[in-house]
Amino acid sequence: MIMNRWRRNRRRKEPQLQEDSRGQEESKHRLPSVGILSLLLRPFGSFAAALRFLTILPLPSKIGTTEAELVHAAPFFPAVGLLLGCIAAPAAKIFFFFLPPLPAALLTVFILLAFSGGLHLDGLTDTADGFFSARSQERMLEIMKDSSIGTMGAIALMFILLLKTACLASLSSEKLLAAVFLMPLAGRAAILLLMAMLPYAREEGLGRLFAVYFNSGAGWAASLAAFLLLTWAAYAAAGPSGFAAVLSVLLLTILFALFCRCKIGGATGDTLGAACELAEAAAVLAFTLKI
């Protein structure tokens, strides 16, 4: 179903050059402008594709609906996370103003979950079912493709939601807004770092669309930019204490990457989703440290 969204390829017709001198002269002026315009609009298409892929936010036009735009969307994942943080933080402030900490924290976690359509949680549950099945690598990958949730997936789902809720409910108002703002950004930055560190573990699958960013220089460049953005946002939101969240996300993602390599030899779309959820939890957990 997700794949069908990105199968609408459109062919562009190249402008014909007329043989007469007047037509040739016009084309000299027209072609560069078309090329420059296309080049300028390409990042907007890729950002729109990232927004469509990672969230349920509606977009008015058909921009960002082609597979070509999605292929180059990965570097814009942190920007989507930043946008979600800007939406979730004011919502959290309203919740905590009118409600006690526990229900307000639960609603905040729900907001973060709802905007992504549960995409990353689905990856977390599939990863938990596969990795903790004590099966061979091939069998783990088969289990992760199964849409049903097993025991370990259910445990992972409950654990991550309870951990986020408990952490948010325990924070002061100053730390709360910073944590909610940074959580979505931290999760999407972790996705890019996992891509950069690991090869794609399947021969086919949705992750193949982002093959250029797996275990490559392009992936490292995108992840470096993502963590620079995360570091800047953490300092802007929480001052020097925000660096603890960045460090926590970085260390956890590295450890999870090593775990993925040990289990299945690389990364899949499910492990990318799991990395996002784990990084969000690590970011908010860092704000609860008593140091």
Could you explain the architecture of this structure?
By secondary structure, the protein is mostly helical. The chain has twelve helices and no strands. It folds into two domains: 2-71, no CATH class; 74-201 and 208-286, no CATH class. Helix 6 packs across helix 8. The termini are far apart.
Report a brief summary of the structure.
The protein is mainly alpha-helical. Helix content is about 75%, strand content about 0%.
Q: Any idea what the shape is?
A: globular
Please report which band the strand proportion falls in: under 5%, 5-15%, 15-25%, 25-35%, 35-45% or over 45%. Answer: under 5%
- List how many beta strands DSSP finds: 0
Class by alpha and beta content: mainly alpha
Radius of gyration: 21 Å
Mean pLDDT, nearest integer?
A: 85
Number of helices: 12
Uncertain runs are: 1-34
Distance between the termini: 46 Å
Q: Give the % helix.
A: over 70%
Biggest pleated sheet: none
Number of separate domains: 2
SSE string, helices as H and strands as E: HHHHHHHHHHHH
